[in-house]
Amino acid sequence: MVINKTASATIAAMRGGLPLIVCAAALVLSGIGAATAQTFPSRPIRLVIPASPGGPADIVARIVAQTYAEAIGQPLIADNRSGAGGGIGAEIVARSLPDGYTVMISHSGPLAIEPLRQSKPAYDPLRDFTALSLVAEQPYVLLVNPSLPARNVAELVTLARARPDKLNFASGGPGTGIHMAAELFNLVAGVKIGHVPYKGAGPGMAALLGGEVEMMFNGISSALPQVRAGKLRALAVAGQKRSPLLPDLPTLQQAGFMYDTSGWYGYVGPSGLPRAIVTRLHEALVKTLAHPEVRERFAAQGIEGAGSSPEAFASFLREERDKWRKVIEASGLKGD
Length: 336
Prior knowledge:
It is built from twelve helices and ten strands. The chain has 336 residues and is an alpha/beta fold. It has two domains: 47-136 and 264-331, Bordetella uptake gene, domain 1 (D-Maltodextrin-Binding Protein, domain 2); 139-237, 3-Layer(aba) Sandwich (D-Maltodextrin-Binding Protein, domain 2). Strands 1, 2, 3, 4, 5, 6, 7, 8, 9 and 10 form a ten-stranded mixed sheet that branches. Helix 3 (56-72) links the parallel strand 1 and strand 2. Helix 3 packs across helix 10. The longest helix is centred in the last third of the chain and has 22 residues, at 310-331. Residues 1-32 have low confidence and may be disordered.
């Protein structure tokens, strides 16, 4: 009979006088964990998307999902849970069983921003999740309604300074990445453009298109169709380099502002996932991101595939958390 390390430790504890029922339970649980890892996955996997349909996180999730399902060997059941900066979906995952059958494709909101804003967050983004991999990155684009008399960033800043508290920007909700991108713009540009939150990036874009607000940051994948159709005006790219899909559009740095932030998306599961299951989920993601069809669909949307090891993604999440903590404190956004 082969006894694993957990079983050996449990037997030693039994000899040391721990209650027999506790030791027996530990043996059973360790056996279940090993068996689960060996057979995983044997049924569909729930993919929580903490964002509304049509937003950049949803677009990335659905590009990845079909090929990932083929790589993992089971269907992925998409479950959009927007609200609270992605916190509603994240809390569901944080409280899920660590069996690999509930995972989340997250953006910066629920894992790096929203818990920092709350005086009593419902979960800890570092303690309550298992990092699997960074999946993709895409630049944010600064968008305005064409009715606004601003054809570049300098004109927008001049207009905002001349009309303090008169202009507003849309977001996918407080604490989302596109919300914080606009708050960061307020700080670096020295303006005060008001925040109007919506229940997801999709509704926020509808408000911008309808003239309810004047400005919005959004992922290039969501912005591109409206910009090409002339329904929205793009003023700048928020990342470090221009997008090949909008080559004439300058970056905010080229427009004269010390500004650099982009949207990112990564897979996590609940805390306590067995290492064998982490490895299985991660290997399928690596295979998915290397698939030619996924790479082509990403490129068509201005998205860059960005796989990483689980350890590298966990380190990245800590860095993002530190970065946005400074913006939240400077903007006075904690606890709203």
